[in-house]
Amino acid sequence: MSVTKVIFVCHGNICRSPMAEFVFNDMVRKLGLEGKYHADSAATSSEEIGNPVYPPVRQLLASKGISTKGKTARRIRKDDYGTYDLIIGMDSANMRNLRYFFDDREGKIHSLLSYAGSSRDISDPWYTDDFETCYSDVLEGVTALIKSLENAE
């Protein structure tokens, strides 16, 4: 059995996409689906490369029992298209950038909340300072994504 690999992408890879990565991997572990799915995350921009997960995100996830230890921001690379089965953007700007960066010939690029039947963006808490709403949206999207992956089997 091969592992389905997902990469979550946001602007800087310090708030939303690492939140989605760690929530996804935590949920996969809790559901006993390790070895079946794995997530990573990356940025569309290069301004935060090498920086750790933003402290309020680290604190929020730690309060849920999820560690982000060792994660640093990285930029999406051309070879990621071949590495990952799904490339998941957090908002319409991320989606535009991803479609510009990749020739999505295999239909791998999707928005996270599309799995929950929504066209809403996941607001960037870097600007909104609303980390709880971001977490709630990420949790909704990740839950629906895992359900979709499991139903596709």
Characteristic terms for this protein:
153 residues, four-stranded parallel β-sheet
Structure in words:
- By secondary structure, this protein is α/β, with parallel strands linked by helices.
- Helix content is 41%, strand content 14%.
- The chain has six helices and four strands, in the order E-H-E-H-H-E-H-E-H-H.
- The chain has a four-stranded parallel sheet with strand order 2-1-3-4.
- The longest helix is centred in the C-terminal third of the chain and has 21 residues.
- The model has no long low-confidence stretch (mean pLDDT 97).
Quick structural summary:
By secondary structure, the chain is α/β, with parallel strands linked by helices. Helices cover 41% and strands 14% of the residues.
Query: Could you tell me how far the N terminus lies from the C terminus, measured between alpha carbons in angstroms?
Result: 12 Å
Let me know the largest β-sheet.
4 strands, parallel
What form results from the Cα inertia axes? globular
For the secondary structure, the number of strands is 4
Going across the biggest sheet, name each strand in turn: 2-1-3-4
Rg for CA atoms: 14 Å
Please report which band the strand proportion falls in: under 5%, 5-15%, 15-25%, 25-35%, 35-45% or over 45%. 5-15%
* Quaternary state of the chains: single chain
The helicity comes to 40-55%
